[in-house]
Amino acid sequence: MQPKSFIPQFWRRQQNGDAPAKATPMEATVNKTTNLGVDAAVTPRAELLSYEDIYRAAGIMAPGAGYDIHKVVDMLNSERIRDLSKDVKRASVLMALDAAGIGVNDLLTDATRRQNALNSYEAAQRKQLEDFEAQKAQENSRIEQEIERIRVHYAERIQKNLDLVAKEKESLRNWQGAMQHEGQRIAEVIELCGKPAAAAPSAMAAAAGAAGSATKQGGAAEPSHGLSTNPLAKA
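^ thats the sequence. predicted structure below, dont judge the formating
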Protein backbone atom coordinates (compact mmCIF):
# COMPACT_ATOMS: atom_id res chain seq x y z
CA MET A 1 0.00 0.00 0.00
CA GLN A 2 1.31 3.42 -0.87
CA PRO A 3 2.01 5.72 2.08
CA LYS A 4 -0.46 8.52 2.65
CA SER A 5 2.17 11.10 1.83
CA PHE A 6 2.56 9.76 -1.73
CA ILE A 7 -0.17 11.86 -3.30
CA PRO A 8 0.83 15.14 -1.62
CA GLN A 9 4.47 14.57 -2.61
CA PHE A 10 3.47 13.80 -6.18
CA TRP A 11 1.30 16.90 -6.27
CA ARG A 12 4.09 19.08 -4.91
CA ARG A 13 6.43 17.69 -7.55
CA GLN A 14 3.95 18.61 -10.25
CA GLN A 15 3.55 22.08 -8.78
CA ASN A 16 7.32 22.60 -8.64
CA GLY A 17 7.61 22.62 -12.38
CA ASP A 18 7.70 19.00 -13.55
CA ALA A 19 4.21 19.30 -14.95
CA PRO A 20 4.06 20.15 -18.65
CA ALA A 21 3.33 23.73 -19.50
CA LYS A 22 -0.29 24.48 -20.11
CA ALA A 23 -0.94 24.38 -23.81
CA THR A 24 -2.11 27.60 -25.38
CA PRO A 25 -5.44 27.00 -27.08
CA MET A 26 -5.27 27.62 -30.81
CA GLU A 27 -9.00 28.21 -31.06
CA ALA A 28 -11.02 30.76 -29.18
CA THR A 29 -13.62 29.32 -26.88
CA VAL A 30 -17.12 29.21 -28.26
CA ASN A 31 -19.30 30.96 -25.73
CA LYS A 32 -18.14 29.32 -22.53
CA THR A 33 -20.64 26.75 -21.43
CA THR A 34 -22.64 27.42 -18.36
CA ASN A 35 -23.03 25.07 -15.46
CA LEU A 36 -24.71 21.93 -16.68
CA GLY A 37 -26.80 21.79 -13.54
CA VAL A 38 -25.25 18.76 -11.90
CA ASP A 39 -27.28 17.89 -8.85
CA ALA A 40 -24.90 17.72 -5.94
CA ALA A 41 -27.35 15.50 -4.07
CA VAL A 42 -27.14 12.81 -6.72
CA THR A 43 -23.69 11.31 -6.50
CA PRO A 44 -22.23 7.99 -7.60
CA ARG A 45 -22.83 5.33 -5.02
CA ALA A 46 -19.91 4.38 -2.87
CA GLU A 47 -18.67 0.85 -2.25
CA LEU A 48 -21.54 -1.48 -1.49
CA LEU A 49 -21.81 -2.62 2.09
CA SER A 50 -21.09 -6.16 3.12
CA TYR A 51 -23.82 -8.33 4.57
CA GLU A 52 -22.48 -7.92 8.07
CA ASP A 53 -22.44 -4.13 7.70
CA ILE A 54 -26.01 -4.18 6.41
CA TYR A 55 -27.15 -6.31 9.37
CA ARG A 56 -25.28 -4.08 11.77
CA ALA A 57 -26.82 -0.95 10.23
CA ALA A 58 -30.27 -2.55 10.61
CA GLY A 59 -29.60 -3.27 14.28
CA ILE A 60 -29.44 -7.03 13.84
CA MET A 61 -26.90 -8.43 16.27
CA ALA A 62 -25.68 -11.98 16.65
CA PRO A 63 -27.63 -13.88 19.32
CA GLY A 64 -25.92 -14.60 22.58
CA ALA A 65 -26.04 -18.35 22.11
CA GLY A 66 -24.32 -18.02 18.75
CA TYR A 67 -27.12 -19.75 16.83
CA ASP A 68 -28.23 -17.40 14.12
CA ILE A 69 -29.20 -18.15 10.55
CA HIS A 70 -25.56 -18.25 9.48
CA LYS A 71 -24.79 -20.88 12.08
CA VAL A 72 -27.54 -23.06 10.70
CA VAL A 73 -26.34 -22.52 7.15
CA ASP A 74 -22.86 -23.61 8.18
CA MET A 75 -24.33 -26.71 9.82
CA LEU A 76 -26.26 -27.65 6.69
CA ASN A 77 -23.13 -27.27 4.57
CA SER A 78 -20.92 -29.30 6.89
CA GLU A 79 -19.51 -32.59 5.71
CA ARG A 80 -21.51 -34.51 8.31
CA ILE A 81 -25.00 -33.75 7.03
CA ARG A 82 -24.42 -32.09 3.68
CA ASP A 83 -25.25 -35.21 1.69
CA LEU A 84 -28.11 -36.41 3.90
CA SER A 85 -31.78 -36.18 3.04
CA LYS A 86 -33.83 -33.09 3.88
CA ASP A 87 -35.66 -34.85 6.68
CA VAL A 88 -32.43 -35.90 8.32
CA LYS A 89 -31.02 -32.40 7.94
CA ARG A 90 -34.15 -30.88 9.47
CA ALA A 91 -34.02 -33.28 12.40
CA SER A 92 -30.35 -32.53 12.96
CA VAL A 93 -30.93 -28.75 12.96
CA LEU A 94 -33.88 -29.02 15.34
CA MET A 95 -31.86 -31.17 17.71
CA ALA A 96 -29.01 -28.64 17.70
CA LEU A 97 -31.37 -25.72 18.31
CA ASP A 98 -33.10 -27.56 21.13
CA ALA A 99 -29.77 -28.36 22.72
CA ALA A 100 -28.73 -24.67 22.51
CA GLY A 101 -32.07 -23.51 23.88
CA ILE A 102 -32.96 -21.64 20.68
CA GLY A 103 -36.55 -21.73 19.49
CA VAL A 104 -37.38 -22.26 15.84
CA ASN A 105 -39.48 -19.11 15.81
CA ASP A 106 -36.54 -17.07 17.06
CA LEU A 107 -34.41 -18.47 14.27
CA LEU A 108 -37.07 -17.73 11.66
CA THR A 109 -37.52 -14.22 13.04
CA ASP A 110 -33.79 -13.61 12.78
CA ALA A 111 -33.77 -14.94 9.20
CA THR A 112 -36.74 -12.74 8.26
CA ARG A 113 -35.12 -9.63 9.71
CA ARG A 114 -31.93 -10.29 7.84
CA GLN A 115 -33.77 -10.91 4.60
CA ASN A 116 -35.77 -7.70 5.02
CA ALA A 117 -32.59 -5.76 5.74
CA LEU A 118 -31.00 -7.06 2.55
CA ASN A 119 -34.11 -6.32 0.50
CA SER A 120 -34.36 -2.79 1.91
CA TYR A 121 -30.71 -2.11 1.19
CA GLU A 122 -31.09 -3.46 -2.35
CA ALA A 123 -34.16 -1.29 -2.97
CA ALA A 124 -32.35 1.79 -1.69
CA GLN A 125 -29.36 1.06 -3.90
CA ARG A 126 -31.60 0.48 -6.90
CA LYS A 127 -33.40 3.79 -6.28
CA GLN A 128 -30.10 5.60 -5.91
CA LEU A 129 -28.84 4.04 -9.13
CA GLU A 130 -32.02 5.00 -10.99
CA ASP A 131 -31.74 8.60 -9.75
CA PHE A 132 -28.08 8.70 -10.70
CA GLU A 133 -28.82 7.27 -14.15
CA ALA A 134 -31.63 9.78 -14.73
CA GLN A 135 -29.43 12.67 -13.65
CA LYS A 136 -26.61 11.54 -15.93
CA ALA A 137 -29.06 11.10 -18.80
CA GLN A 138 -30.16 14.72 -18.39
CA GLU A 139 -26.56 15.82 -18.20
CA ASN A 140 -25.73 13.84 -21.35
CA SER A 141 -28.67 15.48 -23.10
CA ARG A 142 -27.35 18.92 -22.21
CA ILE A 143 -23.88 17.90 -23.36
CA GLU A 144 -25.30 16.70 -26.68
CA GLN A 145 -27.08 20.03 -27.10
CA GLU A 146 -23.82 21.85 -26.39
CA ILE A 147 -21.98 19.64 -28.85
CA GLU A 148 -24.61 20.37 -31.49
CA ARG A 149 -24.32 24.11 -30.85
CA ILE A 150 -20.55 23.93 -31.19
CA ARG A 151 -20.88 21.76 -34.30
CA VAL A 152 -23.18 24.32 -35.92
CA HIS A 153 -20.78 27.12 -35.00
CA TYR A 154 -17.79 25.42 -36.59
CA ALA A 155 -19.85 24.22 -39.56
CA GLU A 156 -20.69 27.86 -40.24
CA ARG A 157 -17.02 28.78 -40.00
CA ILE A 158 -16.06 25.96 -42.36
CA GLN A 159 -18.74 27.01 -44.85
CA LYS A 160 -17.54 30.60 -44.63
CA ASN A 161 -14.01 29.47 -45.42
CA LEU A 162 -15.25 27.40 -48.35
CA ASP A 163 -17.19 30.39 -49.65
CA LEU A 164 -14.10 32.59 -49.42
CA VAL A 165 -12.04 30.01 -51.31
CA ALA A 166 -14.73 29.73 -53.98
CA LYS A 167 -14.81 33.52 -54.31
CA GLU A 168 -11.04 33.67 -54.76
CA LYS A 169 -11.21 30.90 -57.36
CA GLU A 170 -13.90 32.79 -59.25
CA SER A 171 -11.82 35.97 -59.15
CA LEU A 172 -8.81 34.10 -60.51
CA ARG A 173 -10.89 32.53 -63.31
CA ASN A 174 -12.25 35.95 -64.29
CA TRP A 175 -8.77 37.40 -64.34
CA GLN A 176 -7.49 34.49 -66.41
CA GLY A 177 -10.30 35.07 -68.93
CA ALA A 178 -9.41 38.75 -69.20
CA MET A 179 -5.74 37.83 -69.48
CA GLN A 180 -6.44 35.49 -72.40
CA HIS A 181 -8.34 38.25 -74.19
CA GLU A 182 -5.49 40.67 -73.58
CA GLY A 183 -2.99 38.07 -74.81
CA GLN A 184 -4.96 37.62 -78.02
CA ARG A 185 -4.96 41.35 -78.66
CA ILE A 186 -1.20 41.54 -78.12
CA ALA A 187 -0.66 38.51 -80.40
CA GLU A 188 -2.66 40.15 -83.16
CA VAL A 189 -0.51 43.29 -82.97
CA ILE A 190 2.67 41.22 -83.01
CA GLU A 191 1.44 39.26 -86.03
CA LEU A 192 0.50 42.37 -87.99
CA CYS A 193 3.60 44.39 -87.18
CA GLY A 194 6.08 41.58 -87.12
CA LYS A 195 5.75 40.36 -90.80
CA PRO A 196 6.30 43.80 -92.53
CA ALA A 197 9.28 44.44 -90.35
CA ALA A 198 10.82 41.20 -91.59
CA ALA A 199 10.18 42.08 -95.32
CA ALA A 200 11.57 45.67 -95.12
CA PRO A 201 15.26 44.72 -95.67
CA SER A 202 14.42 42.91 -98.96
CA ALA A 203 12.56 45.92 -100.30
CA MET A 204 15.38 48.24 -99.35
CA ALA A 205 17.91 45.91 -101.00
CA ALA A 206 15.85 45.85 -104.25
CA ALA A 207 15.65 49.66 -104.30
CA ALA A 208 19.40 49.98 -103.77
CA GLY A 209 20.09 47.53 -106.60
CA ALA A 210 17.93 49.50 -109.01
CA ALA A 211 19.71 52.75 -108.13
CA GLY A 212 23.15 51.18 -108.69
CA SER A 213 22.22 49.88 -112.13
CA ALA A 214 21.04 53.31 -113.25
CA THR A 215 24.30 54.90 -112.13
CA LYS A 216 26.39 52.47 -114.18
CA GLN A 217 24.42 53.12 -117.35
CA GLY A 218 24.77 56.92 -117.03
CA GLY A 219 28.58 56.76 -116.59
CA ALA A 220 29.13 54.71 -119.81
CA ALA A 221 27.29 57.18 -122.11
CA GLU A 222 29.15 60.30 -121.04
CA PRO A 223 32.65 59.43 -122.53
CA SER A 224 31.33 58.66 -126.03
CA HIS A 225 29.37 61.89 -126.01
CA GLY A 226 32.47 63.87 -125.05
CA LEU A 227 34.64 62.42 -127.89
CA SER A 228 32.19 63.58 -130.56
CA THR A 229 31.75 67.10 -129.30
CA ASN A 230 35.21 68.13 -128.10
CA PRO A 231 37.61 68.78 -131.00
CA LEU A 232 40.56 69.28 -128.72
CA ALA A 233 40.13 65.85 -127.32
CA LYS A 234 40.18 64.41 -130.82
CA ALA A 235 43.43 66.21 -131.86
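Helices lie at 6-18, 51-57, 69-76, 86-100, 104-229, 231-234.
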